[in-house]
Design goal:
Blueprint: E1 6-7, E2 10-11, H1 22-49, H2 54-63, H3 70-76, E3 81-84, E4 88-91, E5 101-110, H4 115-120, H5 122-134, H6 146-162, E6 167-177
Antiparallel strand pairs: 1-2, 3-5, 4-5, 5-6
Length: 178
Amino acid sequence: MSSDEVSDGVPVDEAGAQKTGGKGRLIAIAVVVVGMLAGAGGVYWYTQSGKPDHAEEKRAEAEDPAAEGGAEGEAADPSASYIEVPPMMVNLRGGGAQAKFVKLRFVIVAADGKVDAVKARLPVVLDALQPFVRELRPDDLDGAAAVFRIKEEMMRRSTEALGKGMVRDVLIQDLIQQ
């Protein structure tokens, strides 16, 4: 038999094996190429979606000139007023037999011209923060993001207690778990 002979309508080669059609090989190559293009597109989308859109930041800076310097601008701002808060030491909530404590020392950055008002209402701020700190569990203090989450909640509660525009930031000095 030669390679051109056909057995039951299917071409066979010299060894007697059936030839696979060129269409099957072409479809397999097309599937591989489409898969590679889809993978490359997914990688491109993933890397591009991770980059922040700076249009929002630029718009915020245009509205708030104090935001231009970011954290460095706040540190260099001579009008920033730092109010030292007495350290808080509270027991943590937990089911263990041994009591655990946390010592928290922080500073409130008052808005421009609001220092006296914030100092006068400092007991209200401490009263708003006390239940939050007491409800913390030892697990809440684990990890790198723990200080950030605690700081954000303290900022939210301070703003809620004093009113919007009174507190610019809350700076955590010490957060010691014992």
